[in-house]
TrEMBL record:
UniProt domain Ig-like: residue ranges: 9-124
InterPro entries the record matches: Ig-like_dom (IPR007110), Ig-like_dom_sf (IPR036179), Ig-like_fold (IPR013783)
The protein's name in its UniProt record: Ig-like domain-containing protein
Source superkingdom: Eukaryota
Renumbered residue ranges of the record's region Disordered: 170-199, 343-365
Amino acid sequence: LDVEVILVPKIINKTLLFAERNVDDAVKLTCVTIANGPPEMLFEFSSTSRSSQGLPAYTIPEWTAIQPRYGLNLRRIQSDDSNPTLHKLVLDNSDLRRIDHGLYRCTVTNKAGRAQAVGQILVRSEPEMELIPSESTYFVSHKPWIASCHVTGYPLAWEIKPTWRKRSVEFEEEDDHRPSTESTDELAIPSETPPTKNSSVQMKLFTMDGQPMNRVTIGLINYEANKFFGINATYEVHMNQRLGKEALVRCEYTHTDKRIIYRESLLREATKPPAPNVSNTLFITVLCAGPRAVVFGVTNPLVHKDSLPTERIVTQKVIFGPAKTFHNSASMDSLVVYLDSDGQPSASPANRSDDNLPHATVTSSHRRATAPHTAIIPVKGLQADTEYVFEWSSGNEFGLSVMVQFTLWTTRLETSPAIKNVVFLKPTANFLRFSTFLADPCPYGGGVRAELSDLLVRYRPAKANGSAETPIGQGDWSEMQVCRNMLDTDKSESQNNGQADLDEEQEGIQWAGDKPIPCELSMPDAEADYEVQIATRNRFGKSDWFTAIYR
């Protein structure tokens, strides 16, 4: 009885996984393993480049399977009869590029376990410099500005000798087979020792005239270097005086042959957005003041890729409270304005105190606004006949805001609301149906409708008057009646305030005349012509009669 024992693979001749070449050269890596099974073999690559990724400290990056391309091929050399357990996987690259500089991992797997070995291809190339701001090329006064000088290429001028450490990588099998551990070759890990003052990488600041800038402190806060990702030096710049509006920041690298490679960027001072109602882009105005609400019109500049970051309004809110206690935080409330991707305010703000304010963003959407629009923003839930202070703040992405303050009185609730219009609807058998619109100049938060207790109606027959096109009322008026649907409507509204608020969010805010009050009136003959008079009544009295002809 022949029994084959499958053994854990073993990678040998690991020196064949290391190479150093120039750009455009040819190179070959060979992974040699002793295994039976037969095994599966795989080559993976990791560039270890961290350009613009902002990863903290040096870490072994993620591995990706090598994809064949023009000049880059993978071929498996099968074992022969003389040595059936010897297997090879060859990586042939006849067109070496800068992006091929990095680590290469060979993985061998069979039913007994897995083995791995890490090699490298060092591609000799010219140094390249990249200046990477931590956030943007704008600085805020009295706050440090942070940026990194990242140099790639090989070999580079090291300030210090990179330390070498061994890493042991453990792999867990998904099945019940015993896991295997294979020690990788030595990898270069960046030294934690700070570089000397005569560093090959430096950051400098200049005026727009090219003169070195004085009274500016540039401190090195992080330094990492190895032969894979290059040199990454992070600096913190402290402005001890106002630099003016602009400055030039430069990253310099001195190569082994004393050449200086540099990259410059324009550094601007972050300022507040334009003041409201002064510039031609940001307007906040008062549209009306009612007994329960004050309505503002807000127009923001459009946010687009070409707009200056300092002028983009990304957060907007208003804090308000009675003028007598405005500086007492306990008596203040706030309202957040939602902004869309164009920086335009929504007509559906929300009363809440939330630090996670919505932000406008520069997007690549094809459906973009072509001109700013004015949004109607009501501040509701106010008290009648009260002096309020409203403080609007509009902020950009740098946390700098402009303020505008309004001091306004809400109106009194002393008279019954007047009627603006009446629209008659299709009648039923013995009922006259119509909708009433109030002449409320500021109906938000209920407006005067919140104080409306009754809708009074009376009528009398109407007959043609000679050649006049419109009939006129004749005879005595009927008994004054209270609108049948008025009480039910108020009760329904009071019980469904939450749903009403939701509908208002979805449908937008409505002006006076947009929200009718339905009414049904019992009468003996709905097919006849009538002169109808409607009036409103609240706790202060009754309004004047509004006359309409029903035909």
